[in-house]
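From the pipeline queue, job 12 of 40. The input is one protein chain; the requested action is below.

Action: predict structure.
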Amino acid sequence: MADTVGAAIARLAREESGRVLALLAARFDDVDLADDCVQDALLQAAETWPTRGIPDNPPAWLYTVSRNRIVDQLRLRASRRRRLTAAAPELLTESEPSTGPELIIDGRELGDERLRLLLLCCHPALDRDAQVALTLRLVGGLTTAEIAAAFLVPERTLAQRIVRAKRKIRDARIPLTIPADIDGRVGVLLGVLYLIFNEGYLSRGATSSLVRLDLADEAIRLSGQLIQLIPEDGEAHGLLALELFHRARFGARLDVAGDLVVLSEQDRSHWDSTMIDRARTVLQAAVARPGVGVYRIQAIIAALHAGAQTAADTDWEAIVDLYRILERIGPGPVVALNRAIAVSMVDGPERGLAEVDAIDGLTDYHLWHAARGELLYRAGDREAAGAAFRRALTLADNPVEQRHLRSRIEKCVVTGGRSGE
């Protein structure tokens, strides 16, 4: 029973807390209070569900308990009495949480509220790191630990960032609205959605799954809403196309045993062809818009992978050229790493390894060490490859990735690496 309750609460926190928070924040115009009360309600679930049982409608329960807590808090604030009465007079007599099916949320209305919350979190009064962290926390439903992993920063640093951002929103009375001119927030918003999708593509939390479909699909849904709001933005289309191309490969990324299958070894018949077709349509709309940007370039790279019948058919030379363009318009160590891997497919592992080793800033990034291990293995240095894989293993959080790295270490030992180090 305890395991069932724990799983239900975890699922509620992951899949529904962001939606409930968005609705309550819009209704009461107080993001910080809504977040606090949703978290309090989740704690109450952990305390009461083991004895009272799981409600028939957990999202309705979470919404009602959180809402009643907000009402209680507003009641205690005499200076906000008129605001409470105007915002939700019908709640003043409610005391017991409802477990019935009455929480029916119109998908379009919910999307609008979540988009408003996204844009609030991306307000220019907040610095960029705070914008991304706060949005992932409040809208994406990621834990502080998961966001810290995505940022490659300590969890405490990330937590302080979120607290400061929420305080600034409260103190500055930043409104929960969709501004007439959102150009200043679009870049940050796209980055936020991309990070949410990336957490879905490769969960960096210590979970048993490689992917989190809820986050990946939520990022795709929100990206689709964004292009409806700003249909002329080519980068928004590019991001959606990129997400769809990657999402199409989810069915081939694990084998029947649940182990990781790298891109070059995936059964491409398991890729979602319908989703790839949708991605291509969105990409056509993206490149038809003026300008060039990082998401459109990445989507074109993903399209080249999707168009190759086999791994050997991949046009790696074109991909190298695209990564060079990407480095010019959006440089960064991870982009340089991806370019170096592509270079190794054209010019050999030794050339790729030299470029990987020249990258600064990724010594604590497990995929940098994993890439070095693969290149060293291809170059025939099994001992050094094993050392690189072992270093990657110490940095990887996801159990599926950890199993894959252990298998690579074992292969290095079998094929000549030394196991006693």
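Job complete. DSSP finds 20 helices and no strands in the chain.
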